[in-house]
Amino acid sequence: MHILVTGGAGFIGSHVVRHFLKSYPGYRVTNLDSLTYAGNLENLRDIESMPNYRFVKGDITDAGFLDSLFAAESFDGVIHLAAESHVDRSITEPTAFVKTNVLGTVNLLNAAKTGWKGNFEGKRFYHISTDEVYGTLGREGMFTEETPYDPHSPYSASKASSDHFVRAYFDTYGLPVVISNCSNNYGACQFPEKLIPLFINNIRLGKPLPVYGKGENVRDWLWVVDHARAIDVIYHRAKAGETYNIGGHNEWTNIDLIRLLCTIMDRKLGREPGESAKLITYVTDRAGHDLRYAIDSSKLQRELGWVPSITFEQGLEETVGWYLSNREWLENVTSGSYMRYYEEMYGGR
Ligand code: NAD
Ligand code: TYD
Q1: Closest residue (by CA) to atom 1 of ligand 1?
Q2: To test ligand 2's pocket by mutation, which of 85, 91, 219, 259 has the most ligand atoms within 8 angstroms of CB?
Q3: What is the pLDDT of residues 83-132, one digit of tens each?
């Protein structure tokens, strides 16, 4: 089995690459990544010398490059994670999201369709998507696989569009696709522009914690390793054309989550209880900020038997521990161009 993973140098992709290499020593994994600010080969240091792993630097917006890669290699499957993934960046730079998330996905679909020469026996094109395509919930209810798409941010609009193209290639060409829509991930190696690693880093440095609006928005958090385990079962066992929601039934308002994080950080850093929470600073709300996401993953649990392996409290404890013992990783990714972006985005807040 030879699998092409796109975006394998990013946060979730690096966990997926590691999970497949360790769980299936007989598989070959090719990691294709263009190494944007979010792609970091440091995330893969522990597995990069495995004989069945290969890294290829390349851009999914380059159709010619993808066609030659598929002509040169015989991939049995694709797990497509490469994307622009940060909502705040999509608000300031929407075109980059259309290029990578929409055009890049269509290029990859074309390369697979052509490269596999219409013979899809034993093949699989697995597209990794997000719960954000469903839009926002009120205080009640959960997203199911039947919830109509209603994206609000340029990020979620681009992911929704790519999902539609993936389904269209199943309906039109019979390409054996599967899609999963997952809730917010957290864990080691997440770029510190997303809530949890950004706030861990700011607490460590004694910098303000910019809470958007009143901190009342709700997200449903899943440990990234459990997402990788779900991707494994879906890759191997889902029927072509199927969609699965992935989530841990784990809803938190931002402010409750931030307070829990502050408590863990106080303890781990030997600070007085309540010290880190003093850094909480309420700032202007994100434009178009979705109020609540909540995933109903009962189809995945019922049909494929997947359940999360740890609680949020255990996962957050583990995650904070990872960032505190990998300060060099944090310092490397928060220097240089990221710092300029950080200044622009948060204006020193
Ligand atoms: P990330 O931003 O950490 O990583 C994205 C990776 O894609 C990076 O390594 C980057 O270099 C690469 N990439 C970007 N543009 C590329 C291009 N044009 N060509 C090749 N490579 C390119 O993102 P992530 O959080 O790991 O998310 C991975 C996937 O999972 C995305 O498709 C995202 O929409 C989806 N997802 C993320 C979450 C989450 O909470 N992070 C939740 C659900 C779904
Ligand atoms: P984020 O990690 O960007 O994920 P997403 O927007 O894809 O859900 O944000 C998670 C939540 O935290 C979201 O409601 C926005 C909020 N947030 C803040 O309050 N402050 C911040 O600095 C960031 C990055 C996010």
Answers
A1: 10
A2: 219
A3: 999 999 999 999 999 999 999 999 999 999 999 998 999 999 999 999 99
Q: What is the pLDDT of residue 209?
A: 98
Strand 209-212 vs strand 280-283: parallel, antiparallel, or unpaired?
parallel
pTM: 0.96
Measured in Å, residue 49 CA sits from the centre of ligand 1 at: 23
The 10 Å Cβ neighbour count of residue 321 is 13
User: Which residues are the active-site residues?
Assistant: 131-132, 155
The backbone torsions φ and ψ at residue 200, rounded to the nearest 5 degrees and listed phi first, read -60, -45
Residue 133: CB partners within 8 Å, gap ≥ 6? 149, 151, 156, 159, 160, 163, 181
CA distance readout (Å), 146 to 202, 243, 295, 299: 39, 9, 12, 11
| pLDDT over 70 (residue 346) | no
Question: What CA–CA distances, in Å, run from 72 to 1, 66, 89, 162, 240?
Answer: 16, 10, 35, 26, 25
Which residue segments constitute the domains of the chain, with CATH numbers given?
2-187+222-247+290-309 (3.40.50.720)
Predicted pLDDT at 335: 83
The finding on whether 195 has its CB within 6 A of some atom of ligand 2 is: yes
